[in-house]
UniProtKB/TrEMBL annotation:
CDD domains in UniProt: AKR_AKR1-5-like
Protein name per UniProt: Aldehyde reductase
InterPro entries referenced in this protein's UniProt entry, alphabetically: AKR, Aldo/ket_reductase_CS, NAD(P)_OxRdtase_dom_sf, NADP_OxRdtase_dom
All residue ranges annotated as the NADP-dependent oxidoreductase domain in the record: 4-267
Organism: Colletotrichum simmondsii
SUPFAM superfamilies the record matches: NAD(P)-linked oxidoreductase
Length: 293
């Protein structure tokens, strides 16, 4: 199924949150899928992300404009900073020097954030947020910015629960969204150069604890993993281009009881499956579970 058709199918079966990013190269297909679905734009929650080569304050609005053009929409609901690291300003998304390493930019993520704050007055985005930030980096935005991030889209699944960080964000009014809520189910995260040994452990969907809970509710382990996020008061954004999986994902909005939630809470091995810090020349997730610095 093409991405355009997947978006159309997702909206037709009942999904309303559609997530994309400039670096995914899916914005044109997403825009077409939304139009083809017949679901009014105002009834969807559409977000995209600012990529690292467009962090310069003079380029942030232009980057959003380019995304809006491809999405064929006058606004997005959240505009999210994809990573805190900055690459050299320009058209190349992964600019590399003679030694083959990515060329870092001179802009700080605080500078980029302030440019994003200004976009709220334009009507081109209803909210701004971040992705792949550490606690200290989020705190820096709170301290030096004028707008607290509305949302943090981060790796979160039963093998990497990050409870203290999530609780801290909630206390600061920041909503948490599970990105890649099944994580090492996706072969990409097992095969990339920055995948960690933990990515080859039991896949989240094959976890015996999730299988036990799934059997109890007449659901699948995938649905239990997604339901865990929803029952915790967070959002989840599963990915699929297969119609039956899209429908199955939608049917994950069911109640887990206290016993179920306790069992999942106890299975947290703090396994972060991939960390592209060396490739991006930035200590990503510093101080968080699953990293060693």
């Amino acid at each position: 199924m093409r991405r355009e058709e997947a978006v159309k199918t997702a909206l037709k079966v009942g999904f309303r949150h559609i997530d994309t990013a400039r670096v995914y190269d899916t914005e044109i297909q997403v825009g077409k899928g939304i139009k083809a679905s017949g679901v009014p734009r105002e009834d969807t929650f559409l977000g995209t992300k600012l990529w690292c080569n467009s962090h310069h304050p003079d380029d942030v609005e232009a980057a959003l404009d380019a995304s809006l053009k491809d999405l064929d929409t006058p606004y997005v609901d959240p505009f999210i900073m994809h990573y805190p690291c900055t690459f050299q300003w320009g058209a190349d998304r992964f600019p590399k020097g003679a030694e083959g390493k990515v060329i870092m930019g001179k802009t700080t993520f605080v500078d980029s954030w302030k440019a994003m704050e200004a976009l709220l007055k334009t009507g081109k985005t209803k909210a701004i947020g971040v992705s792949n930030f550490s606690k200290d980096e989020v705190q820096t935005l709170i301290d030096k910015g004028s707008v607290v991030p509305a949302v943090h889209q981060m790796k979160l699944h039963p093998y990497l629960q990050q409870k203290s960080f999530v609780d801290w964000q909630r206390a600061n009014g920041i909503h948490t969204t599970h990105f890649s809520p099944l994580d090492n189910q996706n072969s990409f995260y097992r095969e990339v150069s920055w995948s960690k040994e933990a990515s080859h452990m039991f896949r989240v969907i094959n976890c015996p604890t999730l299988a036990e809970i799934a059997k109890k509710h007449g659901k699948t382990p995938v649905q239990v993993a997604l339901a865990w996020g929803l029952n915790s008061g967070r959002s989840v954004i599963p990915k699929s281009v297969i119609e039956w999986q899209i429908k199955e994902n939608l049917e994950s909005d069911f109640l887990l009881d206290g016993e179920d939630m306790d069992k999942i809470a106890k299975m947290d091995p703090k396994a972060r499956f991939n960390v592209p810090s060396e490739e991006y020349r930035w200590q990503l997730y510093k101080g968080l579970d699953g990293v060693e610095y």
